[in-house]
Amino acid sequence: KAGVTQTPRYLIKTRGQQVTLSCSPISGHRSVSWYQQTPGQGLQFLFEYFSETQRNKGNFPGRFSGRQFSNSRSEMNVSTLELGDSALYLCASSERPSTDTQYFGPGTRLTVL
Amino acid sequence: AQTVTQSQPEMSVQEAETVTLSCTYDTSESNYYLFWYKQPPSRQMILVIRQEAYKQQNATENRFSVNFQKAAKSFSLKISDSQLGDTAMYFCASDSGNTPLVFGKGTRLSVIA
Q1: CA distance B59 to B42
Q2: Which of A13, A51, A102, B102 stands 20 to 30 A from A31 (CA)?
Q3: Which of A59, A29, A4 is nearest to B1 (CA)?
């Protein structure tokens, strides 16, 4: 099976802009989670989706949002970008939410100038 | 709330030697899962090993094994016969099923030839 894919792999934006990141899970996986990775904060949970429903949301401002489509693909959106949003955004998929092993994509490197 | 602590920010080991990475966790859940993930410099997060808390037997995957001490809430990773390709960041993580995956800050392991 193909692994988790994320597009784009690299992105450069300026403050105030918005960005949409995409994640395609492993075939058959219905749960998708998003994480933000920074050198200072490490890996922080953003949100988790299962069958198009958000199950959990991390402690991030409302500028961060996401959704999941009927084919389990997921997108996350960050509006009004800030310098501190520069990070590696990782997507992970699993067959079911929580407890099942999550498999990670290569990530999207977002740089905000 | 779940917490995961990795007390060794950096470690190094000679090729072919054995190294142990430490991890402690805290959870109020009775049923939970523990993971070690590896993130090589290329950034793709890879599952190394998984342990179900209800299983007393320590998980093993080839050269990787864990020492799971449930009462002490300790979950260390032992890498035997270290190889240059083991150089990576190693993350310990905990998942209770009701809460999202929680990661430690990571241990940067360098394998020296």
Answers
A1: 26
A2: A13
A3: A59
Residue A99 has pLDDT above 70, yes or no: no
Q: What are phi and psi of B85, to 5 degrees?
A: -70, -5
CB pair distance less than 8 Å for A99 and B33: yes
The Cα–Cα gap between A101 and B52 comes to 11
Does A33 contact B100 at a Cβ distance shorter than 8 Å?
yes
pLDDT digits (tens, 9 = 90+) for B69-87: 999 999 999 999 999 999 9
pLDDT tens for each residue of A17-42: 999 999 999 999 999 999 999 998 89
- Cα of A103 vs its chain's centroid, Å: 13
Min distance B34 CA to chain A CA atoms (Å): 9
> Is the pLDDT higher at B44 or at A35?
A35
Candidates B81, B83, B79; CA nearest to B67 is: B79
Cα separation of A91 and B100, whole Å? 13
Structure tokens at B79: 């890498």
CA distance A23 to A46: 14
Amino acid identity for residue A53 in this structure: T
**pLDDT range class, residue B100, cuts 50, 70, 90:** confident
Residue B63: left (phi > 0), alpha (psi -120 to 50), or beta? alpha
State whether A101 and B50 contact (CB < 8 Å). Answer: yes
Residue B92 one-letter amino acid: C
